[in-house]
Amino acid sequence: MASSKSKPSAGEISSGIDELAGAVAEKCNMADAAGGDTSVASSGATTQGAACLLVLGMAGSGKTTFVEKIQTYLTARQTPPYVLNLDPAVRHIPYQVNIDIRDSVNYKNVMKKFGLGPNGGIITSLNLFTTKFSGVLELLEKRKQQVEYMVFDTPGQIEVFTWSASGAIITEALADAFPTVVVYVMDVLTGSSPITFMSNMLYACSILYKSKLPFVIALNKVDLIDPTGVLRWITDFEAFDLAVEQEKSYAGNLSRSLGLILEEFYGAIKTVPVSARSGEGLPQLFKAVNESIEEYNRDYKPELEKMKEEQRKMKQQRAAARLERLKQEVLETSSASTLTTPLHQARKEAVSVGVFNDPDEGRGSQEQNGDDDNREEESFKRFLDSVKKGREKYS
Ligand SMILES: Nc1nc2c(ncn2[C@@H]2O[C@H](COP(=O)(O)OP(=O)(O)OP(=O)(O)O)[C@@H](O)[C@H]2O)c(=O)[nH]1
């Protein structure tokens, strides 16, 4: 809920953002200097460079506990990860963090300063952090030969990251620079009801389609409940259909129909039962993660390069079309007027120095080229004269 104090002006907001963004850059460096030189990131040099693991999941699914456990697990295998916390509102972090958003942005101050409620405060803090994310990328770039995995813990309110502009910017920036895999932590205890399971799967599916990144589901808290039933729902539609049959509500019918549709989605993901508390299933999880990294290099990266190339071509085409329009305008103006106004003169000179010449256009007959050469010579002479005059004036 927004506070009752009067809203700050646009100018105040802008200067506040500058001030906080400045602090983000400064603190990122400090946090890295403090955390980056610890034993956590000091060994495990890799030849291929690090991969990013974006840990997402519903509030309470166990993301933070999971990050803590994988840090312990990887450190014991001499490949300690580089860990970043992107949750500005988390109170306690049980793992050793290399870059912590809370060192850069104080979300309570952000709430006060901009008159925001808790969710607005978290979103704005993440936005502020994102304005300086290029600084974070530079730090990651420096670390990428020393670690195998760079792990990102994300805000409890999943939508703050998955459906915000800053979440998209961070995900795209990482995926552009490093092999990136989404690890979606799902609480198997709450997911053991077919309807909650389906809600969770829909969420996972929407993230997959939005990010298009390799995707691993960590079916968490298997120390509390046997995940076999839930796993069967993923691999066998009949089993899910049977479970949902008992739900006579509208949600039950909907889940049933969605189950059919999501079959295709299940084929694109890897699901691994784990316990973030006991560490059970982590070797299998990293096997799935490593396969996903290969998938990124094999499928995602070339697709990304293709997209970038298409965008580059589109930009070129747009520029060529703009140039063509301008050329037409110049030609129309030249033929419509015989007046040599200063503007008209300037346009003629622009044509004469070849700015608008396009050799592929096929209008460069020898005669035309001869005209162009003459015009170029005249223009060059004029240029020399003006330089001479300028020198005389100042000598
Ligand atoms: N038994 C059991 N409990 C777990 C496991 N993973 C997490 N928990 C517990 O679940 C609760 C929530 O865990 P967190 O790690 O804080 O979950 P989170 O997703 O980071 O929570 P938010 O920050 O609110 O999104 C805590 O009480 C954890 O101890 C697990 O594998 N087994």
From TrEMBL:
<dbReference type="Pfam" id="PF03029">
    <property type="entry name" value="ATP_bind_1"/>
</dbReference>
<dbReference type="InterPro" id="IPR027417">
    <property type="entry name" value="P-loop_NTPase"/>
</dbReference>
<feature type="region of interest" description="Disordered">
    <location>
        <begin position="333"/>
        <end position="395"/>
    </location>
</feature>
<dbReference type="InterPro" id="IPR030230">
    <property type="entry name" value="Gpn1/Npa3/XAB1"/>
</dbReference>
<comment type="function">
    <text>Small GTPase required for proper nuclear import of RNA polymerase II (RNAPII). May act at an RNAP assembly step prior to nuclear import.</text>
</comment>
<comment type="similarity">
    <text>Belongs to the GPN-loop GTPase family.</text>
</comment>
<dbReference type="InterPro" id="IPR004130">
    <property type="entry name" value="Gpn"/>
</dbReference>
<comment type="subunit">
    <text>Binds to RNA polymerase II.</text>
</comment>
<dbReference type="GO" id="GO:0005525">
    <property type="term" value="F:GTP binding"/>
</dbReference>
<feature type="compositionally biased region" description="Basic and acidic residues">
    <location>
        <begin position="377"/>
        <end position="395"/>
    </location>
</feature>
<feature type="compositionally biased region" description="Polar residues">
    <location>
        <begin position="333"/>
        <end position="343"/>
    </location>
</feature>
<protein>
    <recommendedName>
        <fullName>GPN-loop GTPase</fullName>
        <ecNumber>3.6.5.-</ecNumber>
    </recommendedName>
</protein>
<keyword id="KW-0547">Nucleotide-binding</keyword>
<keyword id="KW-0342">GTP-binding</keyword>
<dbReference type="GO" id="GO:0005634">
    <property type="term" value="C:nucleus"/>
</dbReference>
<keyword id="KW-0539">Nucleus</keyword>
<dbReference type="GO" id="GO:0003924">
    <property type="term" value="F:GTPase activity"/>
</dbReference>
<keyword id="KW-0378">Hydrolase</keyword>
<feature type="coiled-coil region">
    <location>
        <begin position="304"/>
        <end position="333"/>
    </location>
</feature>
<keyword id="KW-0963">Cytoplasm</keyword>
<dbReference type="GO" id="GO:0005737">
    <property type="term" value="C:cytoplasm"/>
</dbReference>
<keyword id="KW-0175">Coiled coil</keyword>
